[in-house]
Amino acid sequence: MIRNMKKDIHPKYYNDSKVKCSCGHLFTINSTKEYMEIETCSKCHPFYTGQEKKLDHVGRVEQFRKRMAKKKK
Questions:
Q1: Does residue 35 belong to any structural domain of this protein?
Q2: Which residues contact 28 (CB under 8 A, 6 or more apart)?
């Protein structure tokens, strides 16, 4: 059974929506929004680039312990 879509209830669909990443990369996609700004894309996300960000876990643990010690006093 084929059903027709209701008229005037669906958003406009753009076949050439522009997307701008915070790294400066521009690309087009299909979307219901004409323009979007995003924070990460495949050009700058560590998973795709292979560059990991190292965090100082030891320093963070020490800062946490100091805060907890201050609360106990």
A1: yes
A2: 16, 17, 18, 19
pLDDT at 60: 79
Q: Please tell me the predicted confidence (pLDDT) of residue 18.
A: 96
25: CATH: 4.10.80.400
> How many structural domains is the chain composed of?
1
Assign 30 a pLDDT band (cuts: 50, 70, 90): very high
Q: Is residue 70 part of a domain?
A: no
Measured from the Cβ of residue 25, the count of other Cβ atoms closer than 10 Å reads: 14
SS3 label, residue 47: helix
C-alpha 30/C-alpha 12 separation (Å) is 11
